[in-house]
Amino acid sequence: MKETVEQSVRELVEPLLEMYNAFLVEVTARGERNTKIIEIFIDTEKGIDAKTISEINKEINRRLSREELIPGTYRVSVSSPGLDRPLRITRQYKKNVGRDIEVHYVSNGQPQKIAGTLVGAGDSVFTLKVDQNTQKDFEYNAVEKVFIKLPW
């Protein structure tokens, strides 16, 4: 049932976000069967402000009520992913080219971590500049997590 709720919400939200030049990063559904919490993470190429998030949240709630997609009681939370959440989709990588990131991956069965500057983001691979002479390519599906490195 969880996948069905997330997919249904995704299908409802994506066309709405296009009207705001925004994109969907992630939808999660958690909680008990009759008291769900639906978290919707959205962004734009230039970042998203609280007013826009509030407008989108209201419209999503109106549409969810009208469509009756989620049985029982539920609460919807719409927000930007924030810098503490890992990058999830290709558009996030493209948006963050030039920023410092930390890549978590597995090599030879061992967890690894490497930091550097995101210098490129294609459709299936991103490029990390580790130092002046070293760049490393990663396939998106070959990494466990990628975080924006905070300057502090």
Structural notes for this entry:
By secondary structure, the chain is of the alpha+beta class. The protein folds into two domains: 2-79, 2-Layer Sandwich (GMP Synthetase, Chain A, domain 3), CATH 3.30.300; 90-148, SH3 type barrels. It has three helices and eight strands, in the order H-E-E-H-E-H-E-E-E-E-E. The protein has helices at 2-19, 50-67, 90-95; strands at residues 22-32, 35-44, 73-79, 100-107, 110-121, 125-131, 134-139, 143-148. A five-stranded antiparallel beta sheet has the order 7-6-5-4-8. Strand 4 (100-107) and strand 5 (110-121) form a beta hairpin. Helix 1 (2-19) packs across helix 2 (50-67). The radius of gyration is 18 Å and the shape is elongated. The N and C termini lie far apart (41 Å). The model has no long low-confidence stretch (mean pLDDT 92).
Topology:
Blueprint lengths: L1 H18 L2 E11 L2 E10 L5 H18 L5 E7 L10 H6 L4 E8 L2 E12 L3 E7 L2 E6 L3 E6 L4
Helix pairs in contact: 1-2
Number of domain modules: 2
Strand content: 35-45%
Question: Residue-averaged pLDDT, rounded?
Answer: 92
The number of distinct β-strands equals 8
Q: Portion of residues in helices?
A: 25-40%
Q: Report low-confidence residues grouped into runs of 5 or more.
A: none
Provide the structure class: alpha+beta
CATH class placement of the largest domain: Alpha Beta
Tell me the Rg in angstroms: 18 Å
Can you tell me the CATH architecture of the largest domain? 2-Layer Sandwich
Principal-axes geometry comes out as elongated
What order do the strands of the largest sheet run in, or round the barrel if closed?
A: 7-6-5-4-8
Summed up, the helix count is 3
Cα end-to-end separation: 41 Å
Biggest pleated-sheet summary: 5 strands, antiparallel
SSE string? HEEHEHEEEEE
| CATH homologous superfamily classification of the largest domain | RimP-like superfamily, N-terminal
Looking at CATH, which topology of the largest domain would you report?
A: GMP Synthetase, Chain A, domain 3
